[in-house]
Design brief:
Elements lengths: L12 E6 L6 H10 L3 E5 L5 H18 L4 E5 L5 E2 L7 E4 L4 E5 L9 E3 L3 H6 L5 E4 L4 E8 L3 E8 L1 E4 L3 E3 L12 H12 L4 E4 L5 H11 L4 E6 L2 H5 L1 H7 L2 E5 H7 L5 H14 L4 E4 L14 H12 L4 E4 L1 H4 L4 H17 L3 H5 L12 H16 L3 E5 L4 H8 L6 E5 L2 H6 L6 E5 L6 H14 L8 E7 L8 E8 L2 H6 L1
Parallel strand pairs: 1-2, 1-17, 2-3, 3-13, 6-7, 13-14, 14-15, 15-16, 16-17, 18-19, 18-21, 19-20
Antiparallel strand pairs: 4-12, 5-11, 6-10, 8-9, 8-12, 9-10, 21-22
Length: about 475
């Protein structure tokens, strides 16, 4: 009956990346108190020991607060990066010649290693290399098996391990590198809840990762390549969720094409009932400033108005000067948007005809949302093992919270990225009357409802059979449940 059972009072979720600025239990607790609902561990950085300690710290906080916490492990993917420099980096001026080669010796003013043989095979003279998210632009003059000679078109400082994008050619890279496979095995051993797959290009990439995960975690496909946009529906069918990863997407595409792409990804994911996260540069200025720009606030609000399940912080919470303030700002923006009288009308979802029609379970959850509006219910309560019923209920974006009751801790943990869901782990129920009684008790205990309030219950009969959503039941809380608490 402690405060940990109480929902946040907002629907959209906040995903905070952890890093050097936020890797202690005390900081994780502070981010949680400020509004974080889920935590991202970036597998691109640090050693297994570092990442294992970070995951252990999250689980220690989970135990101390007594509420399920969500961990997303984000695989690096086939991110192209330059090697290291003897001095950590060098300045490049417009017009300079610069060489990329396969020599692992630390780089200098004229050259650096590029440890990706696929690029030497794919690039042609005239192609662009965009370094450090496009801050530097190199134009290829000549290519051989071991050397790429370039002219610097847009100069700046090039430093250790900076990313390289090649928007003018398709590089035949696997979605999972050897490092990703090792990192995936480690993350699953550590018991993470979600795996984010970077640089997805084809549905086959998602299928390959799903086969390796074998149901031990949910799978999120990151959309950051133009090729993925062309096959978005197929990728979404195979993934459990999707992320609009605007960093690399905005380098590979002209920046003005990113907002329409974001709208399309969010709309399609919502129609298919798949959680969608909007990420990258949401409050970027808060890495160094205690307050965001007005444009950043508007950007976060727009994603929430579009009905995204979660909004994400990257360096703002991982390495910035103001990690707690950044999470608190995200929380404040979300609450303000959700207080707008027009918000729920905008995000409510009612038409699935464009994406292939509804199943029986879809129809049941749509009916539950409709009934709840008609009778003024205070909450929709879902009993679930796999979480599929809850995700369908969340898809409706009803103007009331969804209480997820599940006997599986893994299912409850995954709900930290699903819109409007408050998950509680509870013992399974054996029969219908027990389900009704438990729903009433938990609605009171979580303070989602009070005596006299109606609730709408969704479940599947027979119990303990995933995928059998077939009951919508209306109950009203009486004084008796208050006495039973």
């Amino acid at each position: 009956m402690g405060p940990h059972l109480e929902p946040r009072g907002r629907r959209v979720k906040v995903l905070a990346t952890l890093g050097p600025a936020s890797n202690s239990e005390a900081m994780i607790e502070a981010l949680l108190a400020a509004g974080a609902d889920a935590f991202r561990v970036n597998m691109s950085h640090g050693s297994n020991a570092d990442r294992g300690a970070l995951i252990a710290a999250i689980r220690a906080v989970e135990k101390s607060v007594g509420r399920p916490l969500t961990i997303l492990a984000d695989l690096q993917g086939p991110k192209l990066r330059v090697g290291r420099f003897a001095e950590g980096g060098v300045p490049l001026a417009n017009g300079d010649s610069f060489r990329l080669d396969r020599d692992p010796t630390p780089g200098g003013q004229r050259r650096v290693c590029l440890p990706h043989k696929e690029l030497f095979e794919a690039l042609q003279p005239g192609a662009r290399l965009l370094v450090d998210d496009g801050k530097l632009v190199l134009r290829v003059r000549a290519v051989s098996a071991d050397v790429i000679d370039c002219t610097v078109e847009v100069g700046g400082r090039i430093s250790d391990n900076k990313g390289v994008n090649v928007p003018d050619v398709v590089v035949p890279l696997p979605a999972l590198t050897a490092k990703d496979r090792a990192d995936l095995t480690f993350a699953l051993e550590q018991g993470v809840d979600w795996i984010a797959l970077s640089f997805v290009q084809r549905p086959e990439d998602v299928a390959e990762a799903r086969a390796l995960i074998r149901g031990k975690a949910a799978l999120m496909a990151k959309i950051e390549k133009p090729a993925a946009l062309e096959r978005l529906a197929e990728i979404l069918e195979l993934a459990d969720a999707v992320m609009v990863a605007r960093g690399d997407l905005g380098v590979e595409l002209p920046p003005q094409q990113v907002p329409p792409a974001q709208k399309r990804i969010v709309a399609m994911a919502r129609a298919l009932g798949k959680p969608v996260v909007v990420a990258t540069q949401m409050l970027e200025s808060m890495i160094v400033s205690p307050s965001p720009t007005r444009a950043e606030v508007s950007d976060v609000a727009t994603a929430i108005y579009d009905g995204a399940d979660a909004v994400m912080l990257s360096a703002e919470s991982a390495a910035g000067k103001f990690p707690v303030e950044a999470v608190a700002m995200m929380d404040a923006i979300a609450r303000e948007v959700e207080a707008d009288p027009g918000y729920f009308g905008r995000v409510h979802f009612s038409d699935d005809s464009e994406f292939g029609g509804a199943t029986t379970a879809d129809a049941m959850t749509a009916a539950a949302a409709s009934i709840s509006r008609t009778i003024g219910a205070r909450a929709i309560v879902c009993f679930t093992i796999s979480g599929s019923t809850v995700r369908r209920a969340a898809r409706e974006r009803a103007a009331l919270p969804v209480l997820c009751l599940t006997p599986k801790l893994a299912t409850a943990r995954r709900m930290g990225l699903v819109w409007g869901v408050h998950a509680v782990v509870t013992r399974d129920v054996a029969g219908f009357e027990e389900m009704v009684a438990k729903a009433k008790r938990m609605a009171l205990r979580t303070k989602l409802a009070r005596g006299g309030d109606p609730l709408v219950l969704i479940a599947g009969v027979p119990f303990a059979t995933p995928g059998t959503t077939n009951v919508v039941h209306v109950v009203r809380l009486t004084g008796q449940e208050l006495a039973d608490r």
